[in-house]
Amino acid sequence: MVNILKISLILFFFCFLLFFLFFFFVTLFSTIRSHGTFQKFLKRERKTKNEITNYIIEQEQIFMSRLLVLKTASIIFFLYFFIEILIGAIGFLHIWIISGVKNPPFSVVGMYEFSIKSLITIVASLIAVISYFIFSYIFQKRMLSLEKLKNEL
Prior knowledge:
Low-confidence stretches: none
Number of domains: 1
Largest sheet: none
Strand content: under 5%
Mean pLDDT: 70
Number of strands: 0
Structural class: mainly alpha
Shape: rod-shaped
Radius of gyration: 23 Å
Distance between the termini: 65 Å
């Protein structure tokens, strides 16, 4: 039972990691590419307050959806990390109690596998959190310049 749960969690984690990496790079490239359209929008002449307001709403919707996915990814990575620790501890105690051995059974391969998966999960969580802060900074910077432009009109 524990092995099936562990295998399904590992498969879920790797599928989610692939999805997150794909989303991260697509978001990164689209954010870099959208900087040019943002500059073109600012350089265009005769912008009305309604145009700026509509553009602000559009940009808010795009960035909020991106930030929501990044926030969800970081939460899922942290939850996976704690679930993996819990399953490892339950499996370890289960073997220890059932086997009745006075000294706990240490498996070098199991410890390396657990530490590598934990390290990958921690790195993925940190990437998700750092990218969340980077994208929120870019978003705030753009919104401030648009609000300043809107107030000037």
